[in-house]
Amino acid sequence: MTTISREATPEGDNIKGPHQLHSDLHEIWGNPRGLQALTIVNHTTLGLRFMVTGMVFFLIGGLLAMLVRTQLALPDQDFMSPDIYNQVTTMHGTVMMFLFAIPMLEGLAIYMIPKMIGARDLVCPRLTSLGYWCYLFGGIILSFSLVLEMAPDSGWFMYTPLSSSEYSPGLGSDFWLLGITFVEISALSAGVELVVSILRTRTQGMALHKMPLFAWYILAMALMIVVGFPPLILGSILLELERAVGMPFFEVAGGGDPILWQHLFWLFGHPEVYIIFLPAAGIVSTLIPVFAGRPIVGYGWVVFAIAVTGFISFGLWVHHMFTVGIPQLAQAFFSAASMLVAVPTAIQVFVWLATLWLGKPKMKLPMLWIMGFLIIFVCGGLTGVMLALVPFNWQVHDTHFVVAHMHYVLVGGMFFPLIAGLYYWLPLFSGRMPSETLGKWGFWLTFLGFNGTFLIMHWTGLLGMPRRVYSYETGMGWDIFNLLSSMSSFIMSAGIAMVLLDFALHFRFGKPAKHNPWNADTLEWANNMPPSAYNFVSLPNVETRHPLWDNPDLPRTMAEGQHSLAVATHGRREMWGTDPITGKVREIIHLPGNSWWPLFAAMALAVVCISLLTRLYPLAGIAVIIAGLFLLRWSWENGSHPKAAPDAEVAPGDPPLHSRTMDGPGLWAMSITLIANGSFFLSYLFGWFYLWTVSPEWRMPETSPLSLVGLILAGVVLAAGAAILEKLVRGLRQGKDAGLAVGMYSISALGFVQVAITLWVLLSADLAVTETAHDAIIMVGLAYALLHGGLGAVLVLLQGLRVGYGYVGAHAPFEPAVVAQWWRYNLVTFWILVGALAVLPRVIGS
Amino acid sequence: MATLMQRLHLTHPLHFVIGLTLWCIWFVAVYGGHAVACSVAPPAPEQGVFTLVSAMLLAVSIAAIALLAALTVGCCRMAKRQVGRLRFNASVSAGLYLFSTLGVVFAAMPIIGIPPCL
User: Fold this and answer.
1) A795 occurs within a structural domain
2) Each residue's pLDDT tens digit, A456-478
3) Which domain of life does the UniProt lineage start with (chain B) (predicted)?
C-alpha cells in the first residue's frame, strides 16, 4: 500500500487544487514501469493488454483462414496435405472462438465497465491480472502446437471418438483440452468480477434501471460465462482423463458414450454464440443512440430482450445434434426453443431501427460498421431460423451452408460491431481520431469481401459440399463458387488490413480528438483522453441514464474534485460499494495494489499445463501445490493486512471500509464463483445420470462399491464443522469474537477428518477406473469432494492464523463470512453426491 | 392469492430471472423426463400420442403455464400501482413472465402432435 507522506486530513483534501489531487491519486494508482509493469492490476492497462493480445491471435486465426481458402480455391489442390489441413481448420476455429472473440470482448468490457459505471477499477483487480496471464500463457501453449505441427485436428468442437486417443494418438487433442481449460480460467475470472463490479460498484445514485445498456449486456454475458463455461471444463477434464489414464467416459465398450461429449460441449457451445453476440449488441445499443442524437427507444424492451436471450440460449444446445438419433419429440422441443430465441433478437433489431428512424443519424465511420452489422446479422439470423427446422437441418447438416451461417452470425454479429466500437472508443484510448478515408476503404472492402466469401458459401453448401473436406473433385458444380469465395476472402483480408493499419497509424498521425468527440451520453467520456489510471478524480452522483447529455459540465466538476471520494492521503485505492438495486452507497471498497502473485500463480499453472502435456505427472503435482501456495499467499494480503488496509479511518460522514463490514464484494465474488462451481457440479451429475440412463454398455455392480456408513460419517463431520462456522459468523455479526481462533482450528480439524474418511471410502472401494465408466465417474465425484473438503479445511486454518495476527476479528469480521459460503456449498454438494453415487444405486439398482 | 403475491415482492429485480429460470427448469424436466420415461417404460408406437408419457409431459407443462401466467398477472397489477424504479422492475418482470408463459406454450405444443420415444 502506498502512503502519501502528508498528514491525513481527509476533510482538507476537498479544498486542494485539481492538480494536487491528480498528483496524489496518481501516486497511489499509477502504473510502474520496467519489469514492475508485470505487476500491474489496473483495469485500463489490462483491458488494453487483453485487446492487443486478442488482435494478435485474430491475425493468426485470419492467416489460417487464408490458408484454408487458398486450399479450397481450386479443385484437386495439394497446397496442403490432409493432415495439415485438418490442423489448420481446427486451429482457425479454436483460435477465433477461444483466443480472439471471447477475450477481445472481455478486454473491452474490462476496459469500459468501470469507466461507464463511474468506478475507478474492477472489484478484483488481481483476478483481472491472473485472467490475463492465464489467457496469454494458455494461448501461447495452444498456438505453439502449430509450430510443432502437432496442432489439434479433430475440429474446433473435438468430437469423440475422433479426438480420443484411438483416432488421435498424438498430442494435438491434449494441446486443445489443456490449453483451452487454461484459457477458460481467464474467462471465468473475468465473468465473476464483471458481475460483481456491475452489481456492487456503480457510482452512487446509479440505480439498476439507470445503468448504461452496455452494462446490462455485459452483466448478462458475464453471468452466461459463469454458467456456460463449466460444462466444457468438465468435458475437457473427462476427455483428458480418458486420453491420459484410460478412464472410458466416452468409450462405448467401457460403458461410456461419445454423445455425452457432444452434450457437454454444446451446453457450453451454443450459449457461447450469445456470449459473443451480447457484448457486440451492447456496442450497437450504445452507439446508435449517440449517432442518432436521441435516447434509445424502449430501454425496458432491450433489458427484456437481454434477459430472454441469456436464458433461452441455454435451451438450444441439442439443435447442433439433430442428426445423432434423438427422438422426434425431443427434437421438436429444441426446434421450438431455437425459434423462440429469434424473438428477443428481433426486438433489439426493431429497437435499433426505431431509434434511427426517430433520430437524426450521422453516418460517421462507426455507424458504417453498425449498418454493415444490421444487414449481415439479420441475414445470419434468418438462416439460423431455417436451421432450427429439423428437416432442413438434416439436409444441410455438415455442409458449407452451416459454415456460411455461422460466419454470418459471428462475423456479422460480433466482428462488425466490435470494429464499430473500436472506432468509436479509439479517441478515448489514444486521444486521437482515426482516418475517415482509410476507415471507409477498410469497411467497404471488408463488407464486400465478406459477402462475396460467405453468401456464395451458402450456395456451395446447398449444392452439397461438405465441410472439413480438404479437397474436392472438379465437375461437382462447386468450382466457380469456391474460386469466388476464395477471391472474396482475400478482398476481405485487404479490408481488415486497412482497418488495422488505420488503428496503428492513428496513434502517430491521427488528429487530436476534442473532448467527447461524438457528443456521447455515458460516463466514460468524462475521463481524460487517454484515461488516467484511477479514471475519475471524484465520483459523481448519477441519477440519469444520460449523465453527459443532462449535465455537460460533469466532466469538469469531476476533474476538479467537486464530487465524492476526492481523497488520497490515506494511501488506499478507494471507490464506492453501492446497493445493487438502488445505487445507494453502502461502504467504501478498498482495492489491492499491484502484485506479483497473479503472474506467479499463472506461471505455476502454465507449468502444470506443460507437465500434463509431456506426461510429467510428478512435476505437474508439484506445480499444482506451488500454484496453490501462491494463490493462498495472495489471499493473505487482504482485509486489515499491512499491504491492504490496516487503518480503517475514513472521512467523517463516509461509510466504513468494506473489510470492516459483513457485506463486502468478496462475499459476492464467492457467491458468483460458487454459481460457476455449481454449474460444473450439475454438469457432472448430468454426466452420471446420462450414462446411467442412455449408455448402451453401462455396467453398474449389484452392490455399490462405496461404503455408505463411511460417507454418512464424513457428511456428519462436515455438517458439524459447517454448523460451528455458522455459529462463529453469527457471533461476529453481533460483534463477538471470543474463541474465534480456537473455533477456526477446530473446524479445520473437522474438515481434515472429513477428507480422511472420504479418502478411506475412495481407497477401500477398489474402483476399476480404467475398466468401467461407472467406476471412473465415481472416482471423479469423490475427487471433487476431496478437493472441496481439503480446500475448505485449509481456508479455515488460515482464518485461524489471521485471527492470531489480528487481521480478522470483531473489528474486521468479513472474511469468515466468505469462507462460510464455501462450507455451505461443500456441505450441500457432498450430501447430493452421497445420494447420487451411494444411495440411489442401492434404492433403484442397476 | 393477493397476500401471496404481496409476499413475492414482485417489484424486486430478482423476478427478471425467476420466470425464465422456471422456463429452463420446465424445459429440462420435459426433455429429461421424456428421455428417462423412454428408457424405463417406452410406450408401444401404435399408441400414438395417447400415452402416459405424453399425458405426464402435458400435465407438467400445464402446471408451468398456470404458474407463469399467474405471476404475469401479478406483475402487471403491481406495475400499475407503482412509479419509477419499482414500476420499471414490475413491468419488465411482467414481460419476462409473459414470454416464459408463451415459451412453455410454444415449446410444449409438439407434445400433442408427436408421439413420444420415436
Assistant:
1) yes
2) 999 999 999 999 899 999 989 99
3) Bacteria
